[in-house]
Each structure stands twice: as C-alpha cells, then as structure tokens.
Sequence to fold (250 residues):
Amino acid sequence: MVILFRAMAAADVERANQFDLEKRGFIPLEQEDAPQSIFQTPKESWLRQVYGQLEALARSETRDMYSSGYTEQYQKLLKQMDLNQDGVIDAGELWRFLHNTQPHIRYQVQRLVVKHHSEWLKDGMSALWQAALDEQAKKYPDMALYNRDFINKLVWMKDVPEIRSGEALWHMHPIVFLDAIATSCGRITLAMLRMIWTSSAIVSDELLQQVADELNANLELCNLNTEKRLYHFRLRFIRRPGLNFLLPKV
Fold:
C-alpha cells in the first residue's frame, strides 16, 4: 500500500504544550452554578453547548446518510432545553445522543472536558436527588427505593479529603486524556486518521486501521523516524485536518 502526503512549511507548524488541551483537540466546558436539583442538569449551559456542537458537526457531514437524522434530533433536544419550562427531558435521548456511534461524533464527545459538581458527592437523601426520587415514588415506590439505595452506593467522593469540599471537578475520558498528555508521541492511530476521513460510510474503520498499521510498520521508510518528525505528522491531524491523502482503491 502506498500513501502520499504533502510536506508542510515550517511556518505552518505550531508546537503545542503537553498540557494545552484545546490545541490537542479537547473541548473545555464549565458549569455555571451548582445545581439544586438533578432536574436542572438538562438546562445547564455546558450541556446545551455540547449538543449545539454535535448538531453542527452532524450537519457538516453531508456525505453521511445518518447525519441528517441526527441533526434533526439534536435540534429537537436543543429546542427542549431552551423552551421546555419544566426542564424534563427524556434521559434516554440524552444518553443516546451523547453515545452516538458515528466516528466523527464519538471523537468529539470523547474529548469533552467538563467542570461540574459531581453527583457522586451527594447521597439519595440530599436535595440534589430528593425531588426526582419523590416524583418517581408517586408511581413507582419500589423503583424509587431501589434508586436511592443505588445512588447511596455510588457516593464515594466525600470520603476523599482532597475533593469532599463539594467544589466542582473536571471530568474527562481517562484513557483518551492520558493518551493525549503522554510525553511520547506514540504511533499513528485509527482515531488520528478518522479526523481526516470522518465518514465511516466512505472509509471504513477496517481500512483506516490497515493504513495505520502500514504506516507504523514503515516509519523509517516514511521518514517518520524521529520524535520531532512523528510529532509534526501527528500535529498535522489536530491543527490542519484537510491534509491531502490518497488512498488506493480496494
């Protein structure tokens, strides 16, 4: 397999600090105030920002037949968040559209870094959960008791001295985050290539993995044989995803 790529001028390269998360493709978002009830969560600004970005991303991917349907659903969620005064949004919808399996959506969701007050600090008797559990108990008392017990078993942060004060904490995907701040540049990955070919309908994961494997097996031949050259190659994906690659027809 032969892969051709353009050289870059030195002026086009910007070296990112190891912990400069925005330049490494992460999206930092912050909650404004600590929620008084779990019902407030769907109306928090950071969550609206997330779905707004995903809606724009889905709308931009015109070659993907799934994206038009997702665009409509993201718009529906945003409308509910802005106009529905009771703040009740289907939890299943929120979960499903944050766990979208489309590669270009998933890549962005995995790089959200959100600062908010964790529910793992509050037990089932706290004001945060009380209103929701009381509402559920009116129709499903046994389920409400089960959920209260389940919530209590998840509370562990208050036993950690460094974080039990209740301050907002940064939440992120641990594996993706640790990979991004690793001191070594590492290898060419499928996720890096997916930033260029965002549509799995056009280029499959299997083919991109084959390309990654071919590159990693021939780093010397491709002249990616030093840390700086490999860093230059990887940085191209983050800063300038329009790189012109030519894939062979298969």
